[in-house]
Specification:
Layout lengths: L1 E12 L6 H8 L4 H4 E3 L4 E10 L4 E10 L6 E2 L6 E2 L9 E10 L4 E6 L5 H12 L3 E5 L5 H6 L1 E12 L15 H11 L3 E7 L10 H11 L2 H4 L2 E10 L6 E4 L6 E6 L9 H21 L1
Antiparallel strand pairs: 1-8, 1-9, 1-14, 2-3, 3-4, 4-7, 5-6, 7-8, 10-11, 10-12, 12-13
């Protein structure tokens, strides 16, 4: 059995009347060649198995197809290594499951070290030829707590191991560009920034730049690399400082999935996990 993780997002086509549900309806009718894209020199992506499960439930799969860099196989009795034996036109497939509930405007996406939400976003943009954005769904009240602060005492950001600094370009917010500069100029894999107010307890960091920075870093195109993001402050009626931790407060669901007879994660169990995740997402948003 393996633990499988599911994260939740708002799925929006920006600057377009298209909806994610509408995209799924269209994609289900496209020939496979129109749904196949190349992520890089080794990986192809394909959306498939799109099903309208019920009135507002959709499910589907992204096939992550490796076309190069294959491992060898080994005989566990003789410990003799052999070529995997794939033909030139063949590849290895990893199945990533997702589910969407239009009434919640919530996407449940199976994520792993090799498949991050940013990859999903990029793929949908390429197939649809439309700007597309995923926004993390946070626990009820998390962002509202930040907006309710009277003063902000500090902000902490840690960015770790981004594929490249280019993923932060075009984000017009104070501090974000500086992260890119530090990574580029120092060749850094990790950058941590702590911004703190003056010692005067009545002082506050400036709200708008803090909010702009948080909004930009919560976008999925950068969130894959954000390891820490928190803001500490207090409301008008409070005396004590309180942190808002945007990593801890994002909605996450997980469960154990069995391997099938061929040693693969059971596809039907993965599909059920993301569908169950949407139901649990609704409950978590109600509970706060």
């Amino acid at each position: 059995m393996k633990k499988v993780k599911v994260e939740f997002f708002r799925a929006t086509f920006t600057h377009s009347a298209e909806t994610f549900q509408g995209f799924l309806k269209t994609a289900a009718t496209l020939p496979a060649t129109k749904r196949l894209t190349r992520l890089n020199s080794e990986i192809l992506l394909l959306i498939t198995e799109i099903h309208h499960a019920s009135a507002d439930f959709w499910s589907g799969e992204i096939h992550r197809i490796r076309t190069r860099g294959f491992p060898d196989r080994i005989d566990l009795k003789t410990l003799r290594e052999e070529d995997l034996g794939l033909l030139t036109q063949q590849g290895l497939v990893e199945r990533i499951h997702f589910a969407y509930r239009s009434s919640l405007d919530a996407l449940a996406l199976q994520v792993s070290r090799d498949f991050r939400p940013g990859t999903f976003r990029t793929y949908i943009e390429e197939v649809s030829s439309l700007p597309f954005e995923l926004a993390l769904i946070l626990r009820k009240g998390a962002y509202a707590k930040l907006l309710g602060f009277r003063t902000i005492s500090k902000m902490n950001v840690r960015v770790a191991n981004p594929p490249s600094g280019a993923e932060f370009t075009g984000l017009d917010a104070p501090g974000v560009g500086e992260i890119v500069d530090l990574m580029r100029d120092f060749g850094a894999a990790t950058v941590e920034i702590k911004v703190q107010r003056a010692k005067d307890r009545r002082a506050s960091l400036i709200f708008k730049p803090i909010l702009d920075c948080v909004d930009n870093l919560l976008r999925v195109q950068t969130m894959d690399s954000v390891a820490a993001l928190s803001v500490t402050g207090k409301r008008e009626e409070d005396e004590n400082l309180e942190p808002v931790d945007f990593i801890r407060d994002r909605l996450v669901y997980s469960g154990g999935v069995e391997f099938d007879s061929k040693g693969r994660l059971d596809s039907s169990q993965c599909r059920k996990l993301v569908m169950d995740g949407l139901i649990e997402c609704d409950k978590m948003l109600q509970r706060g």
